[in-house]
Amino acid sequence: MKLLSQLRTSSFQLALLYMVVFATSVFLLLAFIYWRTAGFMTAQTDETIEAEIAGLAEQYRSRGVNGLITIIRERVARDPNAKSIYLLTTDDFLKLAGNVETWPEGTRSSDGGWINFTLNPAVGWQGPERLARARIFEVQGGLRLLVGRDVDDLTNLKRVIETAINWGMGITLALALLGGFLMSRSTTRRIEVINNTSRRIMNGHLSLRIPTRGTEDDFDQLADNLNQMLDRIVYLMEGIRHVSDSIAHDLRTPLTRLRNQLENTLITVDNDEARDHVGQAVAEADQLLATFNALLRIARLETRGNSADMKVLSLDELVSDACELYEALSEDKEQSFSQALEPGVQIEGDRDLLFQMISNLIDNAIKYTPEQGAINVVVRREGTDALFEVQDSGIGIPDDEKDQVFQRFYRVGKSRSLPGNGLGLSLVNAVAEIHQGQILLSDTHEGEELPGLTLTVRMPAYTGIKKRIKAAQPDGGHSAEDGRPAAETGSA
Asked: Within this chain, do residues 329 and 245 fall inside the same structural domain, yes or no?
């Protein structure tokens, strides 16, 4: 798998492209050398044959047929290795002189052209089989003359050159491929260092920085720029956190004091109408405090981490506790509330944060499912993952809004008339990210008037190997001011 991922990298593909261009250049160069070398040797052979033909023609003009036969016999006698090929025949191909006995098969109709044939017993050749090249033309008086050369050595030389070119191309491609792989691996290692550090920073380790080698190359410059950007981001986040802390000190305490004063006023008011107005003001103050606490909690979860509360938990038992808490609320709406909890599904996480996430999701399902609807809570293990799933038959979420519901204060159009502040799923998403989880949304009953919603949280199951997981503040999952469960302060 690692090799396959290496081959898919852009650096290897770039090296592969360079290899193709380089190999093509080498191939064209070797092909040109071969073409020029082989062409030169073939031309030399043809020129030698032409020279012999010119000499024989001169002898024929000065000495006639008998002189031609004599000179052919003399040349054959002087060439015991038979590098030159001669055959003089009558019009009906009876041999008059030469070092082959019969006319090559399939060439009797040729006249004045070049032929390639094999010297073998079929033409009366007594030696080992060899390749030859010759030219045929007709002599005055109906005689036929074939003059050629043994080109077996030339053909073998061409084969040697072709083999050398093939091996050269193979070695070139192999070395280019090896070089491309080594180059891409070196580049990929540098990129992987940046990717790994970036992933850890995204998981909340904002103090980390991308290492450099001190070579001042492109990667070092990129790392320096990213580190400076991270420094700037951390500086801005610290500024935001400082503002949040100031707001918490300057605004949340007066809000709490105001709520308590309203609650005390509610006790002393005798008029029913005034009591209703004060009660509504208390409820509004509670909603403001809940929204404020949820915002601060999400900010803490997204910007800071603490692994002190990470423990091995039974997800099925945790979900069972949450279901027991909310089942009565479901019964009040005459809803069907079912559970399918696979036993022994373990994860590593913060119990309070996970309980808050589970409670928020079950509470949302009950809230957005009409009376006599159906809710099903599922826990199961799938491969190396632990899955927590809540299925309802409520109003659902349109497909074009599923990617937006995790934004702060975002509320689906159908749910704007119901109580909530649009922070519940943002908090759920923050808790899921801390536990390396992934949230999936789908319709429970696709195509129906009430499609419902199936929300699945997929988290790594505990395998006995300790993993470093980003965690949150150990504040017990409760509102800092009113002591109510945090699930109530984070509803969507």
From this structure: no
